[in-house]
Specification:
single chain, about 550 residues, three-stranded mixed β-sheet, 25 helices, about 10% strand, binds protoporphyrin IX containing FE
């Protein structure tokens, strides 16, 4: 009996030590500021994930506790430049955490999900050339981007009498651009902008709001989620009501398309009648180096599929935020100045010169930077881990502690970006621009920064140039006072000056502003090139919402 008592007492003491005393008082992380409940259990931050408020909550914790905040028993969040350098600087040794494994495709790891710097570095070497600024901004890839821009302009030209749903059409533009870049026009390049219904339908599962719930399950209950989705037969029927997102789950269509594209490209590469179409594509680059680098076709398929997924929402959401911001009455002066800059070069180069010409517009660059600052498409934490103890921002960080930083918080530091919620491209042109650039983190930094940055910039600069060279934009009737929201992992992000948030059914997520905030006095630019002011429904919507 005594043994049982002693055993129970020892177990209770141990539990007390590991669950309360160590995290709150004794462990090395106990000195790090932050709310006690977050330090006690990882489920407190998970609750914020569930509510879709993680990034904003962490931002508030930084405002309350300072540059270093403990956000979990094993998690610390930072918001200073020295932490940025220490964790994400080239050669820092910090690696991506298991969180990223949910982005493995077809069971294979890829550039995005590799933990080790060695594996990552080896794969990156294979891709560096095709993604470099030199290869993207000139020649065949620049011409390919220009072709996609021209198709988008034709889509707009065919819609001058009615508003255009920017959310959907910009997604068509981004999926067409990235698929052509990865697979070429004949073996996977999509034609969503020009009206291919099958290719447009690839985006359907991205638009389903329940994808955020699936992200929550995949993040916090990865094994259970895998188990749920891999059931077959009668078990599948049984678990169906409990699926966080009904099948097809997010990106199912795109993953299937990417696998088929890889298969078709493999066949095409040895068929001289179509192999030319693979010139300058990512998949060709990988096939060519496959033997030397011991890459199997499934590794290549996974790599390309991940880039396809990474290249859709990011670019489309940024463009949507940009057009929406510039269409607000209070920011018409920004639209006017941008239009004047673009129209100062007349006529714009064609036949492959658009990307290079757009890259030179200084004000356009400032507008895109400001959009990425305030409406970063990936604003949330980027978790990292190190296999040895370290000191970050003056705090001892034990080995295998998850450390993270978020563009959202870095981009809202009022000391660096005064009046941070104001959309003000001017801040990238005057004052201490160098310091602001060091805090600009939309594409991350160091060895694991976004490899698609130059492609994304080429797509965005050339599309915005083409649109404002020909049109003015304004909010369509019925959408005044509303703003789009974007989905990123478990969260929705929207302009935080909004007083109210309203999720409208049928995939549309709109917000309502207080009227006083949004009504400005700007006048529309007389459009010398196109007769009428072109109304863009800069809103996340489906047809039924447009008709409301
Ligand atoms: C506005 C557009 C884009 C933004 C803001 C953006 C942002 C980012 C960020 C913040 C990361 C790091 C994420 C993390 O560590 O958690 C990243 C990584 C990555 N991005 Fe992008 N991205 C954009 C467009 C693209 C495009 C068009 C591609 C197309 C290929 C792409 C491919 C990738 C890949 C493959 C990685 C992983 C890189 C590595 O680990 O070495 N991104 N991106």
């Amino acid at each position: 009996m005594l043994t049982i008592y002693l055993g129970t007492a020892a177990a209770v003491l141990l539990a007390l030590h590991y669950c309360i005393l160590d995290p709150l008082f004794l462990g090395a992380k106990a000195k790090i500021p932050g709310p006690k409940l977050y330090a006690l259990t990882k489920w407190r931050l998970a609750m914020d994930d569930f509510r879709g408020s993680r990034t904003r909550t962490i931002h508030k914790l930084h405002q309350q506790y300072g540059e270093v905040v403990r956000t979990g028993p094993n998690e610390v969040h930072f918001s200073s430049l020295d932490a940025l350098q220490k964790i994400y600087g080239a050669g820092s040794g910090f690696e991506r955490t298991d969180f990223y494994r949910m982005f493995d495709v077809y069971g294979r790891q890829n550039l995005f999900t590799f933990h080790s710097s060695k594996q990552h570095g080896d794969r990156k070497k294979l891709l560096a050339n095709v993604y470099s600024k030199t290869s993207v901004s000139k020649g065949a890839i620049a011409s390919m981007v220009e072709d996609r821009v021209n198709e988008y302009m034709s889509l707009l030209a065919g819609n001058t009498d009615k508003p255009v749903d920017m959310f959907k059409t910009l997604h068509y533009f981004s999926i067409d651009s990235i698929t052509h870049f990865l697979y070429g026009p004949k073996t996977g390049g999509t034609s969503a902008v020009t009206g291919n219904h099958g290719h447009r339908a690839l985006l359907d599962d991205i638009l389903d709001p329940s994808r955020r719930r699936l992200s929550f399950f995949a993040t916090h209950l990865p094994r259970f989620t895998k188990w749920l989705y891999s059931r077959a037969g009668s078990m599948e029927q049984l678990v169906r009501p409990f699926l966080p997102m009904q099948k097809p789950a997010t990106y199912t269509g795109i993953r299937a398309h990417a696998l088929q594209a890889c298969h078709d490209a493999r066949v095409a590469i040895s068929d001289s009648s179509v192999s030319d179409s693979l010139e300058h594509t990512v998949i060709r680059e990988l096939f060519q180096q496959a033997e030397k680098s011991r890459l199997q076709d499934l590794d290549i398929a996974s790599e390309c599929a991940d880039h396809l997924l990474a290249g859709i929402d990011t670019t489309a959401d940024t463009l949507m935020s940009l057009f929406w911001a510039l269409s607000q009455p209070q920011y018409l002066h920004v639209q006017h100045r941008l239009t004047a800059e673009i129209r100062s070069v007349a006529p714009l180069p064609k036949n492959g010169g658009l990307v290079e010409a757009s890259d030179k517009f200084v004000y356009l660059d400032a507008v895109i930077k400001e959009t990425l600052r305030l409406y970063a498409p990936l604003p949330a934490s980027e978790p990292r881990i190190l296999n040895s103890d370290s000191i970050v921002a003056g705090y001892a960080i034990p080995r295998r502690t998850v450390v993270a930083m978020a563009p959202y918080t870095l981009h809202r530091n009022p000391e660096i970006f005064p009046d941070p919620l104001k959309f003000d491209p001017e801040r990238w042109l005057v004052g201490d621009v160098q310091t602001r650039l060091r805090w600009f983190w939309a594409f991350s930094s160091g060895g694991r920064m976004c490899i698609g940055k130059h492609l994304a910039m080429a797509e965005m600069t050339s599309l915005v140039t083409a649109v404002y060279n020909k049109y003015s934009t304004a909010i369509a009737t019925g959408f005044e006072g509303k703003a789009p929201a974007i989905t990123s992992r478990v969260e929705l992000f929207y302009d935080e000056r909004a007083a109210q948030f309203e999720v409208i059914e049928c995939n549309a997520e709109l917000m309502v502003f207080p009227t006083a905030d949004i009504l400005g006095t700007g006048t529309l630019l007389p459009n010398s090139i196109h007769r009428a002011i072109f109304n863009l429904a800069v809103a996340v919507s489906t047809a039924s919402v447009l008709n409301e």
